[in-house]
Amino acid sequence: MEAINKIVKKMLKKKLGAAKGDWPEMLPEALSVINTLYRRSTRETLFFLAFGTKGVLLVEINAATYRMESYDPVENKAQRALNLDVIEKCYLQTTYPPILQLVRQTPIIQNRD
């Protein structure tokens, strides 16, 4: 832990220079850089070692992509509702045999004509 603290201090000193009071704003950026840099000894990032997945740099998050630009909250909500319906139908098809599905779909109360 002390080694990482030393690296963070050194990085913040280089980045801030004389403006040492701005370190709280720069700390998340410094930590994300440290977590996404590959280590020679392990050939992996600290983020990957901790969480088992690749980390994303803040620069990559702020970069506009087609997916981010074409995002529509209304369409997304409708698509999620559709996906939930499809998942429920798939679940019913795999859980219950087709005959049980017919029984479940027929009304319980029938007319006596």
Automatic annotation (TrEMBL):
Domain of life: Eukaryota
One Gene Ontology MF term: nucleic acid binding
InterPro entries: RNaseH_sf
Name this protein carries in UniProt: PREDICTED: Transposon Ty3-I Gag-Pol poly
